[in-house]
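4.2 Preliminary Data

To establish feasibility before requesting continued support, the project team ran the inverse folding procedure on a target of 376 residues. The structure was first converted into the token representation described in Section 3, and no sequence information of any kind was made available to the design step. The complete token record follows.
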């Protein structure tokens, strides 16, 4: 598959490429990751100024109406440059949930600040032992006046240390695994009785363990319909993460090919060895297959096709395995230096490894694909 981009989409892609090429090279990225914050508010403001944070949102809420295809274009370039800023967490996931499930008042109150780059968001849905199941929720929410009071624990909440607001899944009825009874709530990250323990992930980003002890939250969407909203959100997030992975895979292939043309062994470049040529052909094929599947998924998300969850799981598993294969080969072909901090190859390896476990690892999505296929 090869998408023919419109003039506006080509302009978006060239704008992102130019910005990242000029202002977000690997050395800049390393300094950002090593900083106390772990991300750059300056670059986030530049993304907002360029319109990247508004691109996926519908025109009805003040966005540019680019939808999943604009997300794909942006995330593929972000993957090439290992951008750490929380575009997926804030724009795709939280912003998408607000646009999908929020009231008109909530859309007006929150989305404008997301597009302007003044507020950051994160989604707190994972719990210990949930194993990627959106319905496995023990955090509870009880009504108290116009708001709700939340109590429970959330684990590995990506970008939470940076966030101004959290969207938290909590149970308003039913048992632990019941699909009905899960609701979504907007919570101020600095609210009373919310404890956040931040940590650094393997790819240099920030995440947190969150404890809620009677924290006040505002209902997002309808009570008890959180799982359905989260499933649609997960499909969009998978589309964005797959695009990021494809961008990273492409850069690993380029880096490995260039290295094979200069690194000499036994007096000749290693690229002249037939066995390594075959391996790099396999890496190229894996990238092309992943690219086609990513584009197919993004187009299907744009058209809101039936069976999108099945396609999303298929893409997450296939691109996940392709990413792991290419990352493994790139590190091995670079030798010991492949995992040094000074070389970008190891950083791509770590980022692909992190992407593979966000919203479900490849093994989980193979099983989910088979389950959805059985009922199709």
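Position-by-position output of the design step:
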């Amino acid at each position: 598959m090869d998408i023919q981009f419109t003039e506006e989409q080509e302009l978006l892609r060239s704008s992102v490429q130019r910005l990242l090429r000029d202002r977000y090279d690997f050395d800049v990225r390393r300094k950002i990751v090593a900083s106390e914050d772990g991300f750059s508010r300056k670059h986030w403001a530049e993304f907002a100024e360029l319109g990247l944070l508004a691109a996926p949102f519908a025109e009805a809420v003040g966005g540019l109406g680019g939808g999943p295809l604009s997300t794909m274009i942006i995330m593929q370039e972000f993957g090439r440059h290992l951008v750490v800023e929380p575009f997926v967490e804030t724009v795709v996931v939280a912003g998408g949930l607000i646009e999908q499930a929020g009231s008109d008042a909530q859309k007006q109150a929150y989305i404008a600040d997301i597009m302007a780059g003044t507020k950051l968001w994160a989604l707190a849905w994972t719990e210990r032992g949930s194993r990627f199941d959106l319905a496995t929720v023990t955090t509870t929410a009880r009504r108290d006046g116009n708001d709700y009071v939340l109590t429970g624990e959330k684990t590995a909440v990506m970008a939470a240390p940076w966030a101004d607001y959290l969207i938290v899944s909590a149970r308003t009825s039913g048992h632990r695994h019941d699909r009905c009874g899960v609701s979504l709530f907007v919570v101020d990250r600095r609210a009373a009785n919310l404890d956040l323990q931040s940590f650094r992930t393997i790819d240099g980003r920030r995440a947190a363990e969150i404890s809620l002890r009677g924290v006040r939250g505002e209902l997002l969407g309808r009570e008890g319909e959180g799982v359905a909203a989260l499933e649609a959100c997960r499909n969009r997030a998978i589309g964005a993460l797959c695009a990021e992975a494809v961008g990273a895979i492409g850069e690993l292939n380029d880096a490995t090919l260039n290295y094979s043309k200069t690194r000499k062994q036994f007096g000749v470049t290693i690229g002249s060895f037939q066995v390594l040529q075959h391996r790099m052909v396999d890496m190229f094929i894996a990238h092309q297959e992943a690219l086609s599947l990513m584009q197919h998924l993004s187009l299907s998300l744009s058209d809101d096709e039936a069976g999108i969850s099945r396609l999303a799981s298929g893409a997450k598993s296939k691109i996940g395995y392709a990413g792991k294969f290419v990352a493994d080969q790139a590190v091995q072909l670079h030798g010991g230096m492949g995992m040094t901090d000074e070389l970008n190859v190891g950083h791509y390896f770590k980022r692909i490894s992190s992407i593979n476990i966000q919203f479900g690892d490849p093994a989980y999505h193979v099983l989910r694909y088979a389950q959805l296929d059985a009922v199709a």
